[in-house]
Amino acid sequence: MKKDVSFAVEGIRIAGEVHFPGDRSQRGPALCICHGIPSGEPPHPSDGGYPLLARKFSAAGYVTLIFNFRGTGLSGGDFDIRGWARDLESAIDWLSSRAAVDMSRLYLMGFSGGAAVSAYVAAHDRRVAGVILCACPADFDKLVGPQNLLSPEHFRRIGAIRDVHFPPSVDEWLDGFREVAPIRWVDKIAPRPVLLLHGAEDDVVRPDEAWRLYQKAREPKEMAIIKGAGHKLRLSQEAMDKALEWLGEQVN
């Protein structure tokens, strides 16, 4: 069963969907799925998006929440990586108030920039039982460096920054990417488990970033490099089957 939901963060409406498993007779495990930083490119017509992924995990018995971070989709606000971390904290708060959720079995699964935020939040929030990091960058240095691929102007063009006066300070906005960088936080997640999934053909976040994170992380940790897969790992059945298998090992 799917239900549209929303919650407020700092006065910003965050929109999402919760997908419930068929059996709701007792509290069950929960999964919060975090999308990546928008590219501005339209999705392929055959792409079922995150709702399709949520249905897959809810069918396997997980109360599954997907939502649009601020500045994206139906949510309000402007893209800000620190703000995304606060959005995710509030998503966890929302899940914690659901009668169907066993909060001792709440997991995060993030993709790309959403994986970075998931690592950051998991390191700070002990309510998170474990985390799956898909196509996760070790840091954002290559994007906020001389090439300036992450800039307010870019996100203004694609509609992720809507307020002409945002951000108040570009330097502070950029500092957020340095603060959230997963290489700073991935070792703080232990003793809770981490699964790193990465496409061998990822040309956006290279596989060596997964190796950097794996080496920094502490046990229990696991990594899988998916042959033939690119950056959008949610489109890889092998990757998502691995994520589902790993979750099953954790909750049972």
Describe the protein.
With 252 residues, this protein is an alpha/beta fold. It has one domain: Rossmann fold (3-Layer(aba) Sandwich). 34% of the residues lie in helices and 22% in strands. It has an 8-stranded mixed β-sheet with strand order 1-2-4-3-5-6-7-8, sandwiched between helices.
Number of helices: 8
Q: If you compute it from the alpha carbons, what radius of gyration comes out, rounded to the nearest whole angstrom?
A: 17 Å
Reported CATH architecture? 3-Layer(aba) Sandwich
Order of helices and strands: EEEHEHEHEHHHEHEH
End-to-end C-alpha gap:
23 Å
What is the strand tally?
A: 8
Largest sheet, spatial ordering of strands: 1-2-4-3-5-6-7-8
**Overall number of domains:** 1
Assign the CATH topology: Rossmann fold
User: Which residues sit in consecutive blocks of at least 5 with pLDDT less than 50?
Assistant: none
Helix content: 25-40%
CATH superfamily: Alpha/Beta hydrolase fold, catalytic domain
Mean pLDDT: 95
**Main sheet properties:** 8 strands, mixed
What is the overall silhouette?
globular
Strand content: 15-25%
CATH class: Alpha Beta
The helix-and-strand class reads: alpha/beta
